[in-house]
Amino acid sequence: ATNSPNEKMGVAVCGVNGRGMSHVDGFNHDSRTFISVLVDVDEKVGQKQADKVEKMQGRRPRVVRDVREIMESDDVQIITCATPNHWHALIGVWAMQAGKDVYIEKPISHNIHEGRALVAAAQKYGRMFQTGTQCRSSVGVRGMIDFVAEGGIGEVNLARGLCYKRRKSIGSLGDYEIPSNVDFDLWSGPATFTEPKLTRQQFHYDWHWQRHYGNGDSGNQGPHQTDVARWGLQLERHPNKILTYAGRLGYQAERKDADYVDAGDTANTQVSIYDYGDKTIVFETRGLSVDNSADTELNELFQSTKGNKVGVVFYGTEGYAVQGPSYEVCRAYDRNKKLIKEFRHDNKQHGSLNNVHMSNFIDAVVSRDASLLNADARCGHLSAAIAHLGNTSYYLGEGNRVGAQEIEDAVGGFASRDDDAETLARTLQHLRDNGVDLSQNGLSLGPVLNFDPKAEKYIDNEEANAWIGRQYREGFEVPAAENV
Ligand SMILES: NC(=O)C1=CN([C@@H]2O[C@H](COP(=O)(O)OP(=O)(O)OC[C@H]3O[C@@H](n4cnc5c(N)ncnc54)[C@H](OP(=O)(O)O)[C@@H]3O)[C@@H](O)[C@H]2O)C=CC1
Ligand SMILES: O=C1CO[C@H](CO)[C@@H](O)[C@@H]1O
């Protein structure tokens, strides 16, 4: 390691309004790298954050708006991406084609086609690729996963991921002015323009809840937890069958206006069931309040009846293992829910999770050994795909607002290791607790999707296959895996 910027590897961070500054922290913290460029389509955001980086490392990074400008730069060896989701894959593919190593935020893709392209590009160009799922570098999570693998809670065939995270309405659907500093053409990139162009009040962050750019909370918070679920169940593949019931509900009650239309179009309440043959993952998203909910067992396992619950529960024949509520702490319980073991990532002792995950990536970059990576492209692809598969079932059934009985019948006929009727009953109770009138605004039921994990296509379902990719704008096409 050296203190001379010239002898360190230069890092360009793309998208620095929020998460990108954690990338800055992580790479600034590692003595092998320095921040050479900030890329942001909002020049003002880029300059403001460059002031901070200059104070941090004593050298001002260049600020550019268009990521294409840095592909040939000699002071850029690594490109990281914390832009909105619809840009992740294209930046990743372009960077790897240009010979850069990449650190890409979760979900690494906006759709399955993009995840495939990233996996292929990393392989073809021999680049190091780390996914921003930092739980993979948590000593606590790893300890729990090892414990589960050694049979610590018996045989395990079911994991439940939870994103119970309060998300208020993002404001009414409208026609809003694009902030003057933003180059909207560039911001949109691979996403075709909508008409009107901007339909949400807050430009930043709330794109997560518009499917054109984001993937809802199942694709935002979700990939952290589905990744842990997949890891613990040792599932290095896609599922065979998927079923979702979901809706964007409760905002009329929240706003006390029966006609209120929120600008988001991703589900804020969603249960997706993934059948992997011998194992099941269930992922539950709840954006309405879960305070004092009727989820007796989950309340016990998370040791709380209040606030958000973000984590994973593994159900074993001899007990339970739980990641959450933080990424640092995991616990194992016996069948009577008596605590038997705790696993911790101690930020003081082990280093902050964020930084450790980035240093793991830098280790691989320096040694050119991809086997060191805690979350490579395929890992990121499989976990992001879980969100895309579940959302596709929702989008295809959206708006049918079927009754509870119809959902119960559908989940009853679906091969699952979960008590599906109980999960449905809890979900319905949760909605009632939040003032949702289920006779008017019920959940929608998606079709069962049969998926070919090898071909990465839905079986005999062209409507679903249309969601594998998207219509790209000219100049912003994410190539097919075969053409990267
Ligand atoms: N691993 C983790 O724990 C976390 C991961 N994330 C992930 O990070 C990503 C960003 O989230 P967040 O920071 O909250 O979102 P924000 O909307 O706050 O920030 C995104 C930034 O990216 C900029 N941007 C948009 N397009 C481009 C582009 N083509 N090139 C360069 N910059 C661009 C935006 O510009 P403009 O200023 O014009 O809007 C904005 O500054 C998400 O994908 C999210 O999933 C987020 C939080 C935690
Ligand atoms: O990864 C993430 C975890 O939490 C953040 C804050 O809610 C999310 O927005 C984010 O994208």
Textual characterization of the structure:
The longest helix has 21 residues, at 377-397. The protein is 32% helix and 19% strand. The two termini are 34 Å apart. The chain has helices spanning 20-29, 43-57, 88-97, 112-125, 139-149, 184-188, 222-232, 251-255, 296-301, 347-350, 353-367, 377-397, 404-412, 420-433, 462-465, and strands at 9-14, 33-39, 62-64, 78-81, 101-104, 129-131, 156-164, 241-247, 269-275, 280-286, 309-316, 319-323, 329-334, 339-344, 444-445, 449-452, 457-458. The chain is built from 15 helices and 17 strands. It has 484 residues and is an alpha/beta fold. The strands form two sheets. Strands 7, 8, 9, 10, 11, 12, 13, 14, 15, 16 and 17 form an eleven-stranded mixed beta sheet that branches. Helix 7 packs across helix 12. It is globular, with a radius of gyration of 22 Å. Residues 220-221 line the site of 1,5-anhydro-D-fructose (NHF).
